[in-house]
Automatic annotation (TrEMBL):
Ligase is among the record's keywords: yes
Cellular location(s): Peroxisome
Protein name, per record: Uncharacterized protein
Protein family: Belongs to the ATP-dependent AMP-binding enzyme family.
Length: 480
């Protein structure tokens, strides 16, 4: 890989340009993709990983924001999507392609040429023209994806500082793709720490993931709540030898205490504790829980150099411990900003606190608990209901495989009624599930909108529930 990195870096189109080139990296995980990623950064280029599963129209919108000078991709369906997206955009960047199928573009293999052994990476730029080695797009779950500019300092802090998992072994499995911040952080952190990194090309069945843990003797597994839920539905205790596994880390969305305890029991026989990390694309890793620093349901404490506060949703004032509000953070190693004014930096207040849009609280010991997204709150009878609370209750029912809770308008008042879309393991009635929830939560939090049985819960590529899509589909169906 070192030889490939050197030769690809020296031979990459744009290596002699005055302005740093912009590389759109439209690919699933692969050694070739990772080689090009590092090689481009060696050239002080800006790399923009893009989800290859996007439809051409959505891909075109992202390419339009970044204006790539060249694109790296793979033969097959992904290349055809890139061609369609560029045609829609009317753009003609240099295209680099890996794979065995014939194509008229620059071949990845053609870049693997003998190079000068004295080759050194270009020095990073500083000051107002500081290097932007990466641009990552947000999930787009609450609006158009935002192009987040990542600096060298951001990468160094997140990949080198407080990111040591040496106590847990030397083989890391990260199921995150390279276009997620978790995929980027685990990729570079494994290099910095000298760890072996096992990766999967793309989304994989639970059986493949557990076979990988068993066969490659994985010691640290970075995963998500959605993956843990899917695994519990399909993997039986004792099916695989997981003795090498020392640490499981969950991130991407809140992991409820109910799901955490179930996963520890059903997947790992209570031999392991599942730890959580919390972060945003804009800010990097904000908090993490590790051995000796964890509480059930908590994402841990704010990392060194990062301040956290919780503010009242109505007046923006700081609240006391254990009081829920919006989580806000301040630090020196956050994003450079959003690219091309794709949106304004309204998330920052006058005190330079970044408002995350996440609801949570902090306890007396400084442990952070993330509850839900502000935009997902359901208001009924002046009470704010968090979908994750009701989802956690339903997931404890033996018939429930997956669930998403959201609010629907009530014709008689200005309130919303909570409704649950449920995927079942075996037959169960709506009344049984509604009553099950009613027995476990206060009256204001009952599922007055009822239950809708569905075949699957739509999620983004990052595993987050697409509640807006479910809500829109239901409104069309019910004509509300």
């Amino acid at each position: 890989m070192v030889q490939g990195l050197r030769s690809a870096g020296l031979s990459l189109p744009g290596s002699n340009q005055e302005q740093p080139p912009v590389l759109a990296l439209v690919s699933f995980n692969s050694q070739e993709c990772h080689t090009v990623l590092i090689a481009a950064i060696f050239l002080s280029a800006t790399v923009v990983p893009i989800d290859p599963s996007l439809e051409p129209e959505d891909m075109k919108n992202l390419l339009e924001i970044i204006g790539p000078t060249f694109v790296y991709t793979e033969t097959g369906k992904t290349l055809r999507k890139v061609e369609t997206a560029l045609a829609l955009l009317g753009s003609n960047p240099t295209i680099i392609v890996s794979g065995r199928q014939k194509h008229p573009y620059v071949s990845y293999q053609s870049l693997l040429l003998p190079t000068d052994p004295e080759f050194r990476p270009k020095p990073k730029r500083e000051g107002k023209d500081a290097s932007t080695p990466l641009i990552l797009f947000t999930s787009g779950i609450s609006g158009p994806p935002k192009a987040v500019q990542i600096t060298d300092e951001y990468l160094i802090y997140n990949c080198c500082v407080n990111c040591d998992t040496s106590c847990a072994g030397s083989v890391i499995l990260a199921t995150s793709p390279i276009f997620w911040i978790s995929g980027i952080v685990t990729f570079f952190a494994s290099i910095v720490q000298g760890k072996k990194r096992v990766f999967l090309r793309g989304p994989a069945r639970e059986s493949v993931i557990f076979e990988t843990i068993q066969n490659y003797k994985v010691s640290v597994w970075f995963t998500s709540p959605n993956s843990l839920l899917s695994s519990m539905a399909r993997i039986q205790t004792g099916m695989y030898n997981l003795s090498s596994l020392k640490m499981v880390v969950s991130g991407g969305s809140p992991l409820s205490p109910e799901v955490q305890l179930r996963a520890q029991r059903e997947l790992f026989r209570n031999r392991l504790h599942i730890f959580q990390v919390y972060g945003l694309t804009e800010l990097g890793i904000l908090a993490s829980s590790f051995p000796g620093s964890n509480k059930l349901g908590s994402v841990g404490k704010a990392r060194d150099g990062i301040l956290c506060k919780v503010v009242n949703l109505a007046n923006g004032e700081s609240v006391q411990p254990y009081v829920e509000g919006e989580l806000c953070f301040k630090g020196h190693f956050f994003m450079k900003g959003y690219l091309n004014g794709c949106c304004t930096n309204t998330e920052y207040d006058k005190g330079d606190w970044f408002h995350t849009g996440d609801i949570g609280y902090v306890d007396d010991d400084g442990y952070i608990f993330v509850i839900d997204r502000l935009e997902d709150l359901i208001t009924y009878n002046f009470i704010q209901i968090t979908p994750s609370e009701l989802e956690g209750v339903l997931l404890n029912h033996p018939a429930v495989k997956d669930v998403a809770v959201f609010g629907v308008p009530n014709h008689h008042t200005e309130d919303d009624w909570a409704i649950a879309c449920v995927v079942t393991k075996f037959p169960v009635t709506e009344n049984q599930l509604v009553d099950y929830v009613a027995e476990r939560v206060p009256d204001d939090k009952h599922l007055r909108g009822g239950i809708k049985f569905v075949e699957f819960i739509p999620r983004t590529s990052t595993g987050k529930v697409r509640r807006n899509l479910l809500r829109s589909q239901l409104r069309i169906e019910l004509q509300i």
